[in-house]
C-alpha cells in the first residue's frame, strides 16, 4: 500500500488513549476519524462527562463520532464515507457488526490486553491477576464476528510483577499495545504480515467483574485472597464485613511470619507485623482498608478505632450482593 495508512479508530477508556496518540503522531498514519461511546454521567453529581478517547482526539483536532449504537445504519454510512484502509479498535465497548468489519479495504484490527486465546472478553487484566497468572501481554488481532477469536497479527508478552495490581498492569499493557500497533500496522497494511489462526487449546474467557467477584471468602488460601485484592484495585475493590460492618480491603500482603492458630476470618493485631486476618492456610496482612462512608486509611488506624483485641470477618456474603465500603 503506497502512501499513508488511512485509519478510523474505535476506543473509549484510558486503555485506548495511548494507542490513539501513537497513531495520531505516526508519520505514516492518517487518522480520518475517531469513534467512541457517548458522553455519560459520572461522579457523585452525575455530571455528563466525555470519554477519555474523546478528550484525547480533541488534542489532535480529530473528528469524533459518538453513536449510541455503532450498528445503526447512519453510523455505518458515516464510517464508510471515511473510506478507511484499516479500522483499529482498543476497548471500544461495542461489538462491531460484520457490515462494519467489511468497510475498511485491509481489515479491522483489535488491540486486546491478553495473550490470546487466554482471557478473551471484557476484563482480561482483572482476570489475569485474579487467576494468579505470572505473565500476560497484548495481542493485535484481525477482527471477526466472534468474541476475540480472530487471527493473530502479533503479540508481546510481559511478566506480572508481584506488586502489580489491575491499575499498574493496565498502564503497562496500554503502553505495550500502542508500541505493538506502531510496530506492526505498517507491514500489515502493506500485506507483509500473514495473521495466524488462534490455537484451539488454551481458550479462557474474562467475564465482566460482578459484585460476586468482590466478596472475600476468608476460607480460601492466602495467595488467592491476596490476588483478589490486587486484581480488584483500583476498581471496584474487594469487599468484606467485619463484625457486620462493611469494609473495602485495598492492600494486603502474605504474613508468613505469623504462626498463631485461628479460624478463618479472625482479625488480630500482631506486634511487628500489623493487622492480619486468618485465611485457610495462613495469615494475610491488611495494609489499607476503607470502612463504609470513610476514606482509604491504614488498617492500623481502622483497628485502633475498633478498640478490640479480636474481630471476626463474616464468612457468608450479606444480602443482596454485599458491596462494602466506598
UniProtKB/TrEMBL annotation:
It catalyses: L-methionyl-tRNA(fMet) + (6R)-10-formyltetrahydrofolate = N-formyl-L-methionyl-tRNA(fMet) + (6S)-5,6,7,8-tetrahydrofolate + H(+). InterPro entries: Fmt, Formyl_trans_C, Formyl_transf_N, Formyl_transf_N_sf, Formyl_transferase-like_C_sf, GART_AS, Met-tRNA-FMT_C, Met-tRNA-FMT_N. One of its GO terms (molecular function) is methionyl-tRNA formyltransferase activity. SUPFAM superfamilies: FMT C-terminal domain-like (SSF50486), Formyltransferase (SSF53328). Residues 208-306 form the Formyl transferase C-terminal domain. The keyword Transferase applies. Residues 6-182 form the Formyl transferase N-terminal domain. HAMAP family: Formyl_trans. NCBIfam families: fmt. Belongs to the Fmt family. This is Methionyl-tRNA formyltransferase. It comes from Alicyclobacillus macrosporangiidus.
Amino acid at each position: 500500500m503506497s502512501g499513508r495508512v488511512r485509519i478510523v479508530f474505535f476506543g473509549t477508556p484510558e486503555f485506548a488513549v495511548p494507542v490513539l496518540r501513537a497513531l495520531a503522531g505516526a508519520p505514516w498514519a492518517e487518522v480520518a476519524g475517531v469513534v467512541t461511546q457517548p458522553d455519560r454521567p459520572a461522579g457523585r453529581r452525575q455530571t455528563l462527562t466525555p470519554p477519555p478517547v474523546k478528550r484525547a482526539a480533541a488534542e489532535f483536532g480529530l473528528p469524533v463520532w459518538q453513536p449510541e449504537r455503532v450498528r445503526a445504519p447512519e453510523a455505518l454510512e458515516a464510517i464508510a464515507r471515511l473510506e478507511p484502509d484499516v479500522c483499529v479498535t482498543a476497548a471500544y465497548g461495542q461489538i462491531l457488526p460484520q457490515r462494519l468489519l467489511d468497510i475498511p479495504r485491509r481489515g479491522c484490527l483489535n488491540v486486546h490486553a491478553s495473550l490470546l486465546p487466554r482471557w478473551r472478553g471484557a476484563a482480561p487484566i482483572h482476570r489475569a491477576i485474579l487467576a494468579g497468572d505470572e505473565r500476560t501481554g497484548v495481542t493485535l488481532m484481525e477482527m471477526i464476528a466472534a468474541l476475540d477469536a480472530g487471527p493473530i497479527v502479533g503479540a508481546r508478552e510481559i511478566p506480572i510483577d508481584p506488586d502489580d495490581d489491575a491499575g499498574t498492569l493496565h498502564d503497562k499493557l496500554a503502553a505495550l499495545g500502542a508500541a505493538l500497533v506502531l510496530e506492526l500496522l505498517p507491514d500489515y497494511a502493506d500485506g507483509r504480515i500473514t495473521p495466524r489462526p488462534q490455537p484451539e487449546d488454551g481458550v479462557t474467557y474474562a467475564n465482566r467483574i460482578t459484585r460476586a467477584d468482590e466478596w472475600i471468602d476468608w476460607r480460601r488460601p492466602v495467595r488467592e485472597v491476596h490476588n483478589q485484592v490486587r486484581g480488584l484495585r483500583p476498581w471496584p475493590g474487594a469487599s468484606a464485613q467485619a463484625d457486620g460492618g462493611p469494609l473495602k480491603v485495598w492492600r494486603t500482603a502474605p504474613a508468613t511470619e505469623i504462626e498463631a492458630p485461628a479460624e478463618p476470618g479472625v482479625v488480630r493485631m500482631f506486634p511487628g507485623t500489623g493487622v492480619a486476618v486468618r485465611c485457610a492456610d495462613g495469615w494475610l496482612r491488611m495494609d489499607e482498608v476503607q470502612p463504609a462512608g470513610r476514606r482509604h486509611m491504614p488498617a492500623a488506624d481502622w483497628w485502633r478505632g475498633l478498640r478490640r483485641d479480636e474481630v471476626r470477618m463474616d464468612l457468608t456474603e450479606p444480602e443482596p450482593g454485599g458491596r462494602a465500603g466506598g
